[in-house]
Design brief:
mainly alpha, 2 domains, two-stranded antiparallel ribbon, 9 helices
Length: 266
């Protein structure tokens, strides 16, 4: 289900958002910081409009690509908040590229129509899960910035992170902690209220298994940091593994069902 399935309004808004994201991403270092910031804010607003139209359309649609698009938008939202507290944080160019790629992917794969018979509580359950995606995505971006800054410091070069490594590390684990809380709430809701949400009891399918494995990875990471002071490469590797497992849980399973198998999924 690709580009032709996307509503015309969504198509033009999505293309406008992708172009707005692409400007600061492609012109890194060639436009002023103020111009790049203004363009990124415009892209963020257009991106939000695309997401709202997709979810409020007739019929509303969702799938693996819209899930990635929402995640990218949430990562950018976290960045927009943090940049007010830490103006020296430098990740604008990379996040602009991420936003453009996510919007374009969602245009090509707008998802499948949602069933009107679904539980009214299901959007809340999805919101918890997608919010955890966004927080873990933001944590991964912070970990990448932290790794890049550490490599530059070891090479006796300017880190260009804009923020001390210890501050970046604290921000990263705060995001991991918040994401872990939301992921726990999502799994508990699916386990306790599966019949209300999906019309069936808890089921050990691929999505559930990968979700539980990711939860265990993040639990080990947080426990290891609190008990043994884990940090640096070991902590970042576990963060990457947990995030990859979480990505496979929903996005991966939906991609296989929607694109490879062309099956309708709730």
């Amino acid at each position: 289900m690709i580009l032709s399935s996307a509503p015309t309004g969504n198509l033009w808004l999505g293309l406008a958002a992708a172009v707005a994201y692409a400007v600061p991403a492609a012109a890194a270092g060639r436009i002023s910081a103020r111009a790049a910031s203004a363009t990124l804010w415009l892209a963020w607003l257009l991106h939000a409009a695309v997401l709202l139209l997709g979810l409020a359309g007739d019929p509303p649609r969702f799938g693996f690509a819209p899930a990635l698009s929402v995640t990218a938008w949430l990562v950018l939202t976290v960045y927009a908040i943090e940049i007010q507290l830490f103006p020296q944080l430098q990740a604008r160019w990379a996040l602009a590229g991420l936003g453009a790629a996510a919007v374009l992917l969602a245009l090509f794969f707008p998802g499948q129509p949602l069933h009107v018979s679904l539980s009214p509580w299901l959007p809340l359950h999805w919101a918890l899960g997608i919010a955890s995606y966004g927080l873990f995505g933001a944590a991964v971006v912070h970990a990448w910035i932290m790794t890049r800054a550490e490599h530059r410091i070891r090479a006796a070069a300017d880190s260009h992170s804009g923020i001390p490594l210890l501050t970046l590390e604290r921000l990263t684990f705060r995001l991991v902690g918040a994401g872990f809380v939301l992921l726990t709430a999502t799994l508990l809701a699916g386990w306790l209220f599966g019949e209300v949400l999906y019309g069936r009891a808890w089921k050990w399918d691929h999505k559930t298994i990968f979700s539980v494995l990711s939860w265990l990875a993040f639990a080990i990471l947080l426990l290891g940091r609190a008990r043994f002071g884990w940090r640096g490469k070991r902590a970042i590797r576990i963060l990457y593994v947990g995030s990859l497992l979480l990505l496979l849980a929903y996005v991966g399973s939906r991609f296989v069902l929607e694109v490879l198998l062309s099956r309708s999924v709730p």
